[in-house]
């Protein structure tokens, strides 16, 4: 299961400029829909995850944080064309300390991440395909 813990760049004093967010793009490379099964975020979504990502399309969501509360949460998508195999993305982006991400898949699916997971305002993509 891909799981990473990424230290932040050195910053002498955390401040309001270090508020956190995750902008995630999920790219559906399967032959069917990716259907949102469940999701949660610690703070209210800036952009909620789409309920369905059609084959060959991408969906984007934004999970905010603030200086006191990390950007944290998860989404679970089910692949209709791959025996309802699931892709899960978990994240925690605190104002201080390492960022933590994991993106496990159930058998039949593969997810590859693209983009830097370091810093406070993360923008990254996950490509989900049959495996």
Summed up:
The protein has 131 residues and is an all-beta fold.
Annotate the secondary structure layout.
Layout: E1 3-6, E2 21-28, E3 34-41, E4 52-53, E5 58-64, E6 71-79, E7 85-93, E8 99-102, E9 109-114, E10 121-130
Parallel strand pairs: 2-10
Antiparallel strand pairs: 1-8, 2-5, 3-4, 3-6, 6-7, 7-8, 9-10
Q: Could you describe the 3D structure shown?
A:
The protein is mainly β and 131 residues long. The chain is 0% helix and 51% strand. The chain is built from no helices and 10 strands. It has strands spanning 3-6, 21-28, 34-41, 52-53, 58-64, 71-79, 85-93, 99-102, 109-114, 121-130. The strands form 2 sheets. The chain has a 6-stranded antiparallel β-sheet, with no helix packed on it. A hairpin with a 5-residue loop joins strand 6 (71-79) and strand 7. The two termini are 14 Å apart. The mean pLDDT is 91.
What general outline do the C-alpha atoms trace? globular
- SSE topology string: EEEEEEEEEE
Which consecutive residue ranges, at least 5 long each, have pLDDT under 50? none
Strand ordering within the main sheet: 1-8-7-6-3-4
Helix content: under 10%
Please state the CA-atom Rg, rounded to the nearest Å: 15 Å
Name the structural class.
Answer: mainly beta
Strand count, sense and barrel status of the largest sheet are: 6 strands, antiparallel
Q: Mean pLDDT, rounded to whole units? A: 91
Number of helices: 0
Q: Could you tell me the strand content as a percent range?
A: over 45%
Report the span from N to C terminus: 14 Å
Number of E strands: 10
């Amino acid at each position: 299961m891909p799981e990473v813990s990424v230290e932040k760049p050195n910053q002498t004093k955390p401040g309001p400029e270090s508020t956190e967010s995750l902008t995630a793009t999920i790219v559906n490379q399967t032959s069917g829909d990716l259907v949102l099964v469940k999701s949660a975020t610690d703070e209210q979504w800036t952009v909620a995850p789409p309920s369905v990502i059609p084959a060959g399309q991408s969906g984007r969501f934004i999970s905010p944080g603030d200086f006191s509360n990390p950007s944290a949460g998860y989404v679970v998508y089910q692949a209709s064309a791959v025996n309802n195999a699931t892709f899960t993305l978990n994240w925690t982006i605190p104002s201080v300390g390492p960022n933590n991400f994991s993106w496990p898949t159930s058998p039949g699916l593969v997810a590859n991440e693209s983009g830097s997971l370091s810093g406070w305002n993360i923008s990254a993509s996950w490509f989900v395909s049959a495996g």
